[in-house]
Design the sequence.
């Protein structure tokens, strides 16, 4: 059974760095073809892909946010991480992590964590 | 970057209707498109992947088709539990979501 769960700070101030953790079970990021991605959704708006990390440590970023994003993983503890630097109010959103494979896309999702950027 | 133009943004249907949502990619995406259902306050749920493959548990009233740049997603015999927002995702070259379609009851 594949499960994922996101965790984050809840609220942070503009210009700070947002750190998110995805803790998962039911698969391993050391398995060929597996990956974890991050997607966000401002309240009432659509989905935006942010970044993916793969079993071989290959990383992909949304070009529009690339300079601010860093994705990483801890394979032994079944976790993936995302950092977003210099946040502002436009980064207020629900952040999801999801399992990804090449042929299935994002197939399993976490429940999401709400992050608010406010002074 | 590949852009995904999803239409319509909103759709009103009666129970039992057939509805269709389309996504057009800015370039050929080689059938690497998935469709997701999202209900308020919930995470998206994958319904279809690789254009037309139903994910386990997806009712057969859902279907997908297309090729090249143009893809469609249909629900035949809309049921009350289908009232939700729907998104396409291209995963051929990086990953891009469509803008979404909100399905409401007429």
Sequence:
């Amino acid at each position: 059974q594949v499960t994922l769960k996101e965790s984050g700070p809840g609220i942070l101030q503009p210009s700070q760095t947002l750190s998110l953790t995805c803790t998962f079970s039911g698969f391993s990021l050391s398995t060929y073809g597996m990956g974890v991605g991050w997607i966000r959704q401002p309240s009432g708006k659509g989905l935006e892909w942010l970044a993916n990390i793969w079993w071989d440590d290959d990383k992909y970023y949304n070009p529009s946010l690339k300079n601010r994003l860093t994705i990483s993983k801890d394979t032994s503890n079944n976790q993936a991480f995302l950092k977003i630097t210099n946040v502002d109010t436009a980064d207020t959103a629900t952040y999801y992590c999801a399992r990804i494979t090449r042929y299935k896309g994002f197939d399993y999702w976490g429940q999401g964590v709400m992050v608010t950027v406010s002074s | 970057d590949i852009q995904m133009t999803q239409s319509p943004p909103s759709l009103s249907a009666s129970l039992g209707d057939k509805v269709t949502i389309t996504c057009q990619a800015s370039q050929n995406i080689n059938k690497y498109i998935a469709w997701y259902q999202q209900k308020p306050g919930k995470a998206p749920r994958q319904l279809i992947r690789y254009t037309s493959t139903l994910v386990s548990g997806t009712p057969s009233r859902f279907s997908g088709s297309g090729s090249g740049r143009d893809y469609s997603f249909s629900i035949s015999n809309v049921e009350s539990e289908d009232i939700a927002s729907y998104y396409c995702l291209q995963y051929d070259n990086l990953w891009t979501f469509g803008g979404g379609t909100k399905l409401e009851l007429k």
